[in-house]
Q: What sequence folds into this?
């Protein structure tokens, strides 16, 4: 491939005589030394089979290891086995573009000229070739300018991204602060509404009509629902602000299950659902914040009950699996579609299935549960086939220090 | 290597390691030094002045003295920009003091890293800062000044042959906003040349990042009073 038709320059082996371009032997030797040692030009000597037999300093630095002594074709980038190197090495003084592999791994394109060398150094089957390859400096300059500009733009964008991230972090902190303050301040008046509503219902209920008692009950239930919502918001604000602190202590699995089972049974009874507590293997224990784990279990039991109908059962169990304790809450409800299973644990996400009694929730319970489990170094997930119930499970690292068990028993 | 550089490098082994790595294009070594530096002194102002600015000025001087190529100088600049992105997660927060600055450099200026360090200095002091790179058209800069009304506009100059372009920009800003306080600074003024900028009303020359830091703090004190 000839990229231009510049020709007619003297080859180093054949200084032009008598036209003003002739050089003395001393100058020629100096030029040769420059090309060999310093010049930003690849200088290769090829034998009749186009094998590289000698290379200047730059070529030795640039070409892949082992290239010298091997055919030039092996150093040429040839994507489709279509480059006919012998056809390119035409000793016509024209410029031929060859892309070479380099020691640095990046290919580089060189503009080559090939010259016949008649220096008498024996080459069997034909004369040697001198290959001189240079870069297009204008092209290199354009490339450098472009890379600098791109790098500058990229760094500016990165800076903008960090500025935006800083602002988002602060806004998120403000949001959590607001959420925490609002939830905290709302909790007390809602508690007062519930308590005094119950008082009125209890002490003045007889004086009210059935409809009026119904109104009052609706007020109390709505306040109770609001309190659940506020409790979830408080949990989220604490977790999101990174202030979730675990009060870890040695705890028995049986104790955690018993407490969660006791409260869970109350929820289940209201909907005529049976909570089955499968007794855990004796002696299981762990280092955990027991009230927070009970909160997770109650949340899972609450969800299971809400998605079950009268007469169905909910199972609560724990199994030891290798170095983990796997807690499970399983129900016989409608199950969860595979597409919903992953996103369930994100805030405000809900499954497509409806709660059987139209119960309301914030959509924060599973997100809170996940944070608590993860803070314990565990993981939480759900296994479900639509129509065949759901099995919510979470695994925590098992404690295996027998002394801890003794401590608990004491 | 010129005597200033040798002396600077000898003064602090960490700086010396960074400077050698910067010239050698060893990004990993540069990163390690930045982390070691921050472990020793978490104040980013020290890192910017004592490592980044000092090393870049030294490389710039070597380039001026024909001791390194322009490619090496560009490489050191690009590497410094990369190091800046490493510290950004520690730098930016949405909390601002209420003061604000707009920082930019001359069009055609490839060396915007100095301007960026100036912008970062404002951020370190809790100022809201708009950084506009070299490619920002003048009209856009004027529009942003009109829109945001920053407390100060800071102009950075690395190469003196861009001084006329920067001066024209400063004049355009002065004409559009006669009372807008402005600052100018950068390596280009190491050999003088800041005088004509300083003759412009409301314009001050900042010689170092330290001086800029002191100026910013004086503005904060002014607000507190």
A:
């Amino acid at each position: 491939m000839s990229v231009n038709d510049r020709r007619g320059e003297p080859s180093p082996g054949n200084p032009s005589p008598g036209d003003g371009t002739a050089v003395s032997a001393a100058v020629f030797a100096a030029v040769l030394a420059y090309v060999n040692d310093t010049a930003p030009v690849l200088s290769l000597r090829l034998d009749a089979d186009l094998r590289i037999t000698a290379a200047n300093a730059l070529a030795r630095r640039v070409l892949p290891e082992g290239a010298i002594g091997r055919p030039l074709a092996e150093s040429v980038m040839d994507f489709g086995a279509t480059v006919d190197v012998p056809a390119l090495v035409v000793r016509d003084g024209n410029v031929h573009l060859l892309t070479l592999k380099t020691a640095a791994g990046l290919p580089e394109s060189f503009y080559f000229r090939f010259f016949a060398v008649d220096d008498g150094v024996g080459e069997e089957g034909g004369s040697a070739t001198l290959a001189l390859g240079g870069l297009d400096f204008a092209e290199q300059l354009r490339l450098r300018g472009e890379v600098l500009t791109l790098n500058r733009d990229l760094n500016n964008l990165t800076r903008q991204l960090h500025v935006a991230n800083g602002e988002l972090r602060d806004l998120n902190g403000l949001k959590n602060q607001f959420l925490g303050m609002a939830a905290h301040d709302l909790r007390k008046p809602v508690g007062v509404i519930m308590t005094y509503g119950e008082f009125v219902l209890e002490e003045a209920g007889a004086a009210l009509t059935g409809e009026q008692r119904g109104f009052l009950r609706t007020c109390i239930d709505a306040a109770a629902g609001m309190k659940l919502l506020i409790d979830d918001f408080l949990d989220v604000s604490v977790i999101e602000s990174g202030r979730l602190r675990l009060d870890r202590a040695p705890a028995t699995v049986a104790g955690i299950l018993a407490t969660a089972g006791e409260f869970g049974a109350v929820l289940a009874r209201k909907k005529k659902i049976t909570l089955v507590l499968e007794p855990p293997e004796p002696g299981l224990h762990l280092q955990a914040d027991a009230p927070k784990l009970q909160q997770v279990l109650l949340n899972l039991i609450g969800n299971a009950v809400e998605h079950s109908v009268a007469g169905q059962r909910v199972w609560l169990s724990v199994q030891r699996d290798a170095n983990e304790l796997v807690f499970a809450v399983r129900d016989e409800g409608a199950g969860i579609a595979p597409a919903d299973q992953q996103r369930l644990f994100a805030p405000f996400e809900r499954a497509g299935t409806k709660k059987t009694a139209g119960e309301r929730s914030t959509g924060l319970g599973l997100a809170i549960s996940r944070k608590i489990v993860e803070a314990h170094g565990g993981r939480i997930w759900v296994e479900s086939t639509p129509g065949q119930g759901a099995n919510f499970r979470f695994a925590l690292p098992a404690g295996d220090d027998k002394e801890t068990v003794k401590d608990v028993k004491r | 290597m010129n005597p200033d550089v040798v002396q600077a490098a000898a003064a602090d082994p960490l700086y010396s390691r960074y400077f050698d790595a910067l010239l050698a294009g060893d990004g990993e070594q540069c990163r390690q030094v930045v982390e070691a530096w921050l472990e020793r002194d978490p104040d980013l102002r020290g890192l910017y002045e004592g490592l980044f600015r000092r090393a870049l000025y030294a490389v710039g001087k070597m380039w001026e003295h024909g001791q390194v190529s322009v490619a090496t100088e560009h490489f050191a600049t690009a590497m410094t920009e990369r190091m800046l992105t490493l510290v950004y997660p520690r730098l930016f927060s949405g909390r601002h003091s209420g003061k604000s600055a707009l920082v930019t450099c001359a069009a055609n200026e490839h060396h915007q890293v100095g301007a960026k360090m100036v912008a970062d200095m404002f951020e370190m002091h809790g100022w809201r800062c708009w950084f506009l790179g070299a490619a920002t058209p003048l009209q856009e800069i004027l529009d942003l000044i009109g829109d945001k009304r920053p407390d100060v506009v800071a102009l950075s100059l690395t190469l003196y042959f861009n001084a006329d372009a920067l001066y024209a920009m400063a004049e355009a800003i002065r004409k559009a906003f006669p009372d807008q306080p402005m600052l100018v600074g950068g390596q280009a003024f190491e050999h003088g040349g800041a005088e004509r900028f300083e003759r412009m009303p409301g314009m001050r020359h900042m010689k170092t990042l330290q001086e800029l830091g002191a100026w910013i703090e004086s503005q904060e004190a002014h607000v507190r009073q």
User: Anything to note?
Assistant: The longest strand of chain A covers residues 108-117. Residues 137-204 of chain A form the longest helix (68 residues). Residues 1-15, 401-410 of chain A have pLDDT under 50 and may be disordered. Chain A has ten helices and 13 strands.
